[in-house]
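Loading example: each entry is read as two labelled lines plus one structure line.
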Amino acid sequence: MSRKQLEKIIDLVKTRNREIQDKQFTLEERRAWIDAGCKLFENLDDIKTEHIDANGVPAEWVTAKGVNPENVMLYLHGGGYVLGSIASHRGSAANLSRATKSRVLLLGYRLAPEHTFPAAVEDAEKAYQWLLGKGVDPSQLIVCGDSAGGGLTVSLLVVLRDKGAPLPAGGVCISPWVDMEAKGNSMDSKADLDPVIQREGILDFSSAYLGGADPKSPLAAPLYANLIGLPPLLIQVGTAETLLDDATRLAHHAKTCGVKVTLEVWKDMIHVWHRFSGSLSEADQAIDRIGEYVYGILYPKESSP
Amino acid sequence: MLLKNRVCVVTGGSSGIGRGISIELAREGASVVIADLQEKPKQGKYEPFPSSTTTVEEIEKLGRQAFYICTEVSDEHSVENTVQQTIKHFSTIDILVNNAAILLPGNSQQLSFEEWDRVLGINLRAFFVTTKLSVPSLKNSRAGRIINISSVAAFFGGGGPAYSASKAAIVNLTRDSAIELAPHGITVNAVCPGFVQTSMHDSFTEEKEEQIRQGTPLKRAGTPKEIGRACVFLASDDASWITGISLPVDGGWLARK
C-alpha cells in the first residue's frame, strides 16, 4: 500500500480545506477553488475535448486516443450538487475514457442553490435522451458518476425506468451520496478518518439542493427509490469515508431489489480517491477496475480491454 | 400429498423455523420461494453439525422445486421484487408464510429507539408489506393461505418490549386480515411456536434453557419440523374452515400460563 502517497494527498486535501475556511470564499470563489484543486492532478495528454450543447445542457466530449467510438459513458460529476463542473472533472473523465475505451460525455448540469432539485435529474435525463437521439446504442452506454453524481446516476436510471426509456448497459457509482439526511453510521464512525466530507457539510449541500423538498424524495435520495429493473451497478467506496454506509446501504437496497450489484470497498481510501490518479496507485487501480467492469458489461465474452 | 403444485413464499426460509416450514411444505408437493437475506443457513449452537446445505438444496432432494430470492422484508421495494419474480417464475402465489423475525435482547432501558424500529420493522411492518403485495395474487388462488408465525410470547410478558409487542400484534393482524380476506376465499392464521431450538436463542444460557424445558409439559424443545407440520395443516384443504386463529405449537407451554 502506498501509505506515503496517501498521507501526502490527505495533507494536501486538509490544507486546501483549511484555506476555504480561512479565506471565507464566496460561492463563486469556492467553485473556482475546487476546479483549480482538481486540475492539479489532471492529465490531458492524448485527450481531445469538444464542447457541445446536449438538449440545452452544456457538456463536453472527452475522448482519449484509440477509443471505440461506439462506446459511450455519460459522466455526472460530484460536488454536492453545489460545486464541481466540467472543468473540475475533465481529468477524471479523461482517465475513464482511457480505461473504458469510451467517449465520455461530461455533463455541466445545473447546480444548487441557484437551481434546486430536480434540476440536476432533469438535465441528466435531457443529456441521456440527447445521446439516444444521436444514435448512441443504449447497450453500449454506461452512466457513471462520483459522489453526488453517483447518486444522480441512480436517480437517472430510476427516471428512465419509470418512463419506459431504453436503459443503459450499466451504472458505475464512485463514492456515491444517496442519503440527504446523512443517517449512515459511518457519518460518525469514520468522521476522524475522512478529510473531505463531514455531516455538517452534507446537510448544507442537501438543504441547498432540496430547496425545501422532502429529504426522502426518491429521486434526490435514491436510497429510498424503487430500484427494481435497474441495469447492473458497480459501486466503489473507501473505508476512510463518512459516506461508506451510503455505498453499502445502496448496494444492499439494490441487491434486495434484484439488481446485479458489485460492491467494492477499498481499504483506507478517501472520498473519490480516483481523482488522485497518477499520484496514488489505488486511484489508478480503481480506474482500471472500472475499465474491466465496463468491458465485462459491453463485451460479455471478452475478458479485458 | 396435501399441497400438490401449490406455490409458497416463505420469508426467512433459509434458517431455523422458516427452513423447517419450507421443507415440510415442499414435502407435501409445494413449490417454495425462499425469501431471505442470505441463502446459507445461519449456524447456531443448536445445529448438531454444520448444516451446509441450503433450503433450496434440501427441497430439490425431495424432488420439488424451490428457488431463493435475496429479500429485505422491511423494504417494500425488495418485497415487490420478490413477489414479481415469484409470479414471473411460477405465475401465482397460493401460500404466503410470514416467518422472518428477529429478537433483540434488552428491556426498555437497554433497547435503543433504532432497535425498537428494527424489530417492529421486521416482525410487524414486514408482515403488512408482504400481505399487501401478495394479496392481489392470492385472490386468484383456488385456496389462498396466509400463515403468520407469531410466538407464545404474544400471550405473556417477559420477552422484551419490542419482541413481545410485535408478536402480540401479529395475533390481531391475523384476525383482521382473516376478516378482510375471507370473501376472497383466503384464510389467514397464525402459528405461535414455543421454545424451538434455533439460532434465535443462541444468547440463552444453559440454565435458562433448562428452565424453559422444565416449564414445558412435554419436557423438551420443539423442532422446526414440528412447526412446519402445523403450517402444512393450516395450508392444506383440511383446514379450509379455519381462519383468524392463533395456534400454539408449544409442547403445552401455554397450558400452564
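The interface with chain A takes residues 37, 69-72, 75, 77-78, 80-81, 84-85 of chain B (CB under 8 Å).
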